[in-house]
Design brief:
single chain, about 45% helix, alpha+beta, 3 domains, Immunoglobulin-like, four-stranded antiparallel beta sheet, globular, 16 helices
Amino acid sequence: MASRNQIALIAGTLFLLGVGLTLYKAFSLGFPLLPGEYREVWTIESKISFTPRKDQPIQVDLKLPEPLAGWVLLEEHFASSGFGFTVADENDTREARWTRQSLDHSTTLYYKLQAYRPSSPELDDMPPTPVKKPLLENDQAAAMERLIALLHEQSADTDTFVALLVTEFNKDNQDRDAEFLLGTFEESPRVVMLAVLAYAGIPAHEIRGIRLEDGRRRQTLSSLIEFHNGERWVVIDPETANTGMPANFFVWQRGSGALLAVSGGTDSDLQFALVSNSLPAKAVIGMEQRAHEYALLDFSIYALPVEQQGVFKVLMLIPVAALVVVVMRLLVGLKTSGTFMPILIALAFLQTQLVTGLVLFITLVGVGLWIRSFLSHMNLLLVSRISAVIIVVIFMMATTAILSYKFGLDRALTVTFFPTIILSWTIERMSILWEEEGFHEVFLQGGGSLLVAVLSYLVMTNRIVEHLTFNFPELTLSLLAVILVLGKYTGYRLSELYRFRDLGKQP
């Protein structure tokens, strides 16, 4: 069989398989083909790790979240391999409890939930709790009284009193009493703020939860402060003094008390992995409930831990960028510096954003080319030259990050997402090209690489593309089929049609 026929057969099979599985999931399992048809669902996975004590019984208690601040909990899953497991109600609070007689190695326990927020982020009203003043030393009490008197003098009501308190504790040049309290308590400023509010007779407590950021791994708990102003409860951020419940904040616990308790173990740690998706809630639940029934066809990224889901959400976009590179090189005839250099640049743009990424890339490569031209006069061997360029690139990235931080340009701090080795090889490759072919060829290949990277970035950040690649990974087979077919194309490219346009004119 001729190679062209073989490619056609393989590509046709892959294309039909990918499209068929996609249609099966869409019509049989209820997966939406387009984003925005249903609500945004967040999958939050908590990971509890600890080291057991030798020959001691183990008990791990994790307080479970309640549907607060407009959140609706859809489904919960617990991983308790080798452990006894129960869900208990303690003081009107649900707790997951893992138990085991003994364990001789470090272990990890998982709790995963799906949640979405259909309503506004408002907490239910509740009566103010009785205020208990903290027990203080004489000097602490005197400093706290002076600080409270100062804040009362500068504020108009309870709301402004708390806002001034938060601002005072976050200033660089703090009041002497505030600085003294922070030093003597030896705890986080948030704890000291709660102590000051209690001493001032203002009911207040902590709200603990997770700041939602798609694809975030190893996330830890964040805290807000909720106080009663005499009429209602008000939420304030202890770091920024902004009031109101943040839209991206998932409330895990309202009030005091330990979230995690480990008996019979040490070095306990609680981390979270997050991923967001537009898949409707009923499809998420149905997929997990019927996973065993459709084990052959219903392969899905949702079967992975959430931490890996966030990684694959980006990785599944790479085949789309690869298709853009193939089309631009084989059909358009655009020159690039390396075959898949534009893909790596586009991945960096996903983290830095487009405009910032372009400025950083052009700056780094431009300075690198100038330094490389200086090194070329020293007649260094290739290995030494590349190593020197790598060190210089890292130094430039560090310098850019430091200067950006000093000037408050937070977006430029993402310069670290650029692949250092790839930047170094790009500089080296363009330098050699400059010496052999001249500036014109460097401009063509460098400009072509940036153009393809920008196009890849625009396609990868399209909401429909993100939705399809994550919810229907089988479409990657169809992309592979298209790339295989394009690999047999031997006709004119668009750039060549323009180049030889005069031949088509009638004499």
